[in-house]
């Protein structure tokens, strides 16, 4: 088993949308992050980003379901302004890009880069992750997993299920 924090099964990351979770940084501050599917596993990630993939489930035995299922993790915040990309119902996505709900800039789900609109020239903040046996692990030295869900999802904060896998 990998060192790190178990997040979820890679197949739980929606094809259109995102898996929202909460992390704590080295200063003890909570932040939200999202897992999204990466539409183009061949895309070159920016320095520091990690491209992880797992073979998709082949429930029906068809060859077409053996495409690698890649996911990426990003801090849930548009770099243009302090705007959550996933506001609790999943981030809006189209054509392999995450759409900022405030001004509509679109970020490549694989690289995090934006080449359009108000946020043009910026990049989402990546988190390191790895996949083993179809399970996504947060392996970023700068963040610890607090739990699934957003910071304000309920009065008790995000769930703090036992994801520690060191
Ligand atoms: S806040 Fe996201 S593009 Fe402006």
From TrEMBL:
Keywords: 2Fe-2S, Iron, Iron-sulfur, Metal-binding. One of its GO terms (molecular function) is 2 iron, 2 sulfur cluster binding. Pfam families: Rieske. InterPro entries: Rieske_2Fe-2S, Rieske_2Fe-2S_sf. Gene3D superfamilies: Rieske [2Fe-2S] iron-sulphur domain. Residues 35-138 form the Rieske domain. PANTHER family: PTHR40261, RIESKE DOMAIN-CONTAINING PROTEIN. This is Rieske (2Fe-2S) protein.
